[in-house]
Amino acid sequence: MEFQGSNYQCEYCKKPHDGSYGSGRFCSKECARGYSSLQNRKERNKKISESCSKNAWQIKYKNSQKYQEIESKRIRTFKDTYNKKRQAKKVVAGGDILDINNQELEEYRKTHPICEICGRKETTDTSGLGKPNKLSVDHNHNTKSFRGLLCQSCNRLLGWYENQHENIERYLYLHDPEWRNGKRS
What we know:
Blueprint (H helix, E strand, L loop, with lengths): L7 E2 L6 E2 L11 H34 L2 H24 L1 E4 L2 E6 H10 L24 E4 L6 E5 L1 H24 L1 H4 L5
Antiparallel strand pairs: 1-2, 3-4, 5-6
């Protein structure tokens, strides 16, 4: 239904109408909704294009040689500072803060690459069937003092022994006459 002599023209579809809908701006509900979504899209696109133009110089700058040099220098400085602070920190083992720092521990690892009890070497090779034999930090849980490096099995056994040594000594006293007479110590 088209109105020939009408003064009203729909702002969305540009057809003439009688002015009875939307204060005379639109010919129907569909045109009013279409116009609204069109305006929202235009505003969104405008905001996106503005943000892209603001970031364009950043993108161009970040790809430049000068930026790459500055950034790599900043990262190197950060890593050096981080490593120095890390080396100066005390070693934490089993939730205890020990009397040795990371740098001293690394030096000790270099000079003592074997288990203090069984003599197994520390390995980082994973070509075998099991996990690598990384030596564990052994320490006194009461005094928090560093005692040495142990392989995982010796570390577990030593922990078990420390918890059970009274029972073991009682058993030996009762069942071994040499222990009872003081010949063993």
